[in-house]
Every structure is written in C-alpha cells, then in structure tokens.
Design brief:
Elements lengths: L2 E12 L2 E7 L2 E3 L3 E5 L6 H8 L7 E6 L2 E2 L5 H5 L2 E5 L10 H12 L5 H8 L15 H13 L5 E5 L7 H18 L2 E6 L2 H7 L2 E6 L2 E7 H6 L4 E6 L2 H10 L4 E4 L2 E4 L4 H13 L4 E7 L3 H9 L6
Parallel strand pairs: 4-9, 4-10, 7-8, 8-9
Antiparallel strand pairs: 1-2, 1-3, 1-5, 5-6, 10-11, 12-14, 12-15, 13-14
Helix pairs in contact: 4-5, 5-6
Length: 304
Amino acid sequence: MKSIITTEALTKRYHQKAVVNQLDLSVPSGSIYGFLGPNGAGKSTTIKLLLGLIKPTTGSIRLLENEVTEKNRLTILSNTGSLIESPAYYGHLSGEENLRIICTLKNVPETEISRVLKIVRMEGQKDKKVRQYSLGMKQRLGLAAALLGNPRLLLLDEPTNGLDPAGIQEMRDLICSLPAQYGITVLISSHLLSEIDQMATHVGIIDRGHLLFQDSLSCLHEHSKSQLLLHTDDDTKAAQVLKAHRIPAERRKNGLCLCHSEDALVIEAVSTLVRSGIGILRLNEQQMSLEDIFLRLTGRQVSL
C-alpha cells in the first residue's frame, strides 16, 4: 500500500529542545491514521510541520508521493485540507458567506460550497449567522472549509475537543465516511484513546517527540493478549519461589502475572507453589485494554 505521508528523521528543535525527534511517519493511502499521544507529545507540532506552517530543523517530508520543497509546497498543499485547533470565523456572517471567503482565498469555485455542506450535513444551517452556531456546528463548518477543493489528504488536529457526546459522534461518523465515500486519506491527532479506537485503521503513538509505535490498529490490539493473574496467600514468597524455579512471572499490586499463558506453564506454576506450601486463592484471565497498552508504551497515564 502506497504512503500518502512519509517523513524521514523529521526533527523540530526549540532552544535545543527536540519537540519532534527523528520522526519516521508512514501514512497509507486511503487510511484513517490515528496520531495518538498525551498533550505536549509533539502531535500539533508535527501537523504544523507537514503543512509548512513551521520549518523543520532537520529531516524530510513527502506528501502525496512528492518531496515537499519551497518550490512545490503550495502546489502540494492545494490537495491538502486541514482543521487545526478551533477554526476562526466571521460571527456576523452566515456559514455560507464564510465559506465564500475561504473559496476566494483558496481560489476554489463557489459551486464547491453546496457539495461540502452536504458532506458535513449542514445544508439547513448555511444561512444562519455563525455566532449562533453551537461548537459542534462550528467544527463541522471547519471541516467543510477543509474539504473545499476536494483534497486527497485531510489533517485534523484534535477535532472533537470540547464537543459534547452527540457532537463527538457526529464528527466521528463524518470522518469515518471520508475514505470510502470520497477517497480522502485522514490523519487525525488525539489524546483520546477511545476516539481513535473507534475511527482509525492505522495508529502512530508519539510521546516526548519520539514515535513509539506505528502499524495497523489490529496490530496494536494484538499487544493486548490476555494475561493470567495468580493470587496467593503470600504473593511475595510466591514470586521468590517462581523465580527460583525459573518460571517467568511479574509481581503486580493485585497479584502475580504469569508472563506466558500456555497450559503446561500454568500447571507447572500452580504445582510448584502448592508443593512449596503456598495457598492458591484464585487464577483469573485479564485482557489488556488499549489504555494499558498505551501506558506500557509511554509509561504515562492518558486522558480517557
């Protein structure tokens, strides 16, 4: 599968501090790529680098299969739409009038307006003043503006921030429809694991400027293989006994985690503990959540 975004060793430093550090992104064409990380991880800086809003310290960027240079940047970006943070509008103008201004700035025919309003399902609110819009409607209008010109690539930076549950669901449904119905590849940044899990086909996890994981969402979920938690009447002694018999286990707050769940190993672990006079209270299977995987990769808690 071809990559519509590729970066090589992309780095951005501010006062010798690397906010984005040696980043190698690969976003497949036709995907919804969830760019995931805690607040301050470098997500927004990366998107601004991709859009040419700031210059990289080192590294290269390829968009739409072309290396981005000063000469071709505007041509490439004409096929790219973006929604960065909260979009700004003229509140005294209607939604349609705001889009007309953007058409002029983008050199896009005004006939595009009805098409993008239909995509974001705002035909009925096009004549209403933007100051009367809810936050969700403003975000949808921002998405409509990003879709003007029929871009092949869409970059969205935390598009559900501040929305209520209904607004989040609307935005999620719109984003999920874009690749199949309109052939648009979407890169969406978020610190909300649950949102990415419901939208993305591929995932990149960034923390402190470093890319920690990049692959399909299904591959990420393979990391969530079940674990067996063993609870005994003396977990400290049990851990020592298992270590002495070279049976891999990790001491946890809520018991002992057997590092492998093969039947033979479980039988050996339980038998060894019983022979050592340690009582087995219970043995239960635990599936790692996406949040657990993220915490294991980053060592940090993340908003849910």
